[in-house]
Recover the amino acids of this structure.
């Protein structure tokens, strides 16, 4: 099974992706996580990506597309995968189609997570993540049991540098300009499934699972 999950920053796409990865035994490919781990280890890719990420802008397609192509060639992707945060532009979506066509593969479904902007701003600015394992917390709605310590691995729970109010506003503009058009792009291919994440992640996952069943995936 090859899935894409689309959604505004803080819509909960990462959280849903982790549940779907477990349920369907998929590789989870988060381009944001790949960039963050490169930034942490100070690679040239990380240094280049950081300047864009800090401003809430997209890392250029010329960097991102090659990085994803390399990741999709890794062994764990043979069992199927969920792409979280890629594609984010029409050019990336077209490049992905070409990469897959070369291998005789295709995307089975595209999940679009829907959340109101006001809810997003509130959730993102109170979001915290584990530096070590990436587990997601929220100081208002889902705090770690011990403040600043990950329940799962004991790593440091911190706020992402780009989860401040100013950068979130820029990321939302970037999303509407560049990424939202992908919903029409994939709708035209009959691949879109909606997950409504305005209420809670359980009902969102249920609607995604129903959508996958309806598509026969
Ligand atoms: P995310 O963790 O998905 O919210 O991504 C964090 C940041 O990484 C984004 O705001 C972008 O700056 C960058 N990024 C992640 N995925 C992509 C992508 N597919 N294309 C360009 N930039 C990306």
């Amino acid at each position: 099974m090859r899935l894409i999950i689309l959604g505004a920053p803080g819509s909960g796409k990462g959280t849903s992706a982790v549940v779907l990865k477990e349920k369907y035994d998929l590789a989870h490919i988060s381009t944001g996580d790949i960039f963050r781990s490169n930034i942490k280890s100070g690679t040239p890719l990380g240094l280049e990506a950081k300047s864009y990420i800090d401003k809430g802008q997209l890392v250029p397609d010329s960097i991102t597309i090659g990085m994803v192509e390399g990741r999709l060639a890794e062994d764990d992707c043979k069992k199927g995968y969920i792409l979280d945060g890629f594609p984010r532009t029409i050019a990336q979506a077209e490049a992905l189609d070409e990469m897959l066509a070369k291998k005789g593969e295709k995307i089975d479904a595209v999940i679009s997570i829907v959340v109101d902007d006001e809810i997003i701003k509130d959730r993102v600015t109170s979001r915290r993540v584990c530096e070590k394992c990436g587990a997601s917390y929220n100081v208002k709605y889902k705090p770690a049991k011990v403040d600043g310590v990950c329940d799962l691995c004991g790593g440091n729970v911190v706020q992402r540098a780009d989860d401040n109010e100013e950068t979130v506003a820029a990321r939302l503009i970037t999303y509407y300009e560049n990424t939202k058009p992908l919903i029409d792009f994939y709708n035209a291919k009959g691949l879109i499934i909606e997950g409504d994440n305005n209420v809670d992640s359980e009902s969102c996952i249920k609607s995604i699972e129903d959508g996958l069943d309806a598509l026969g995936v």
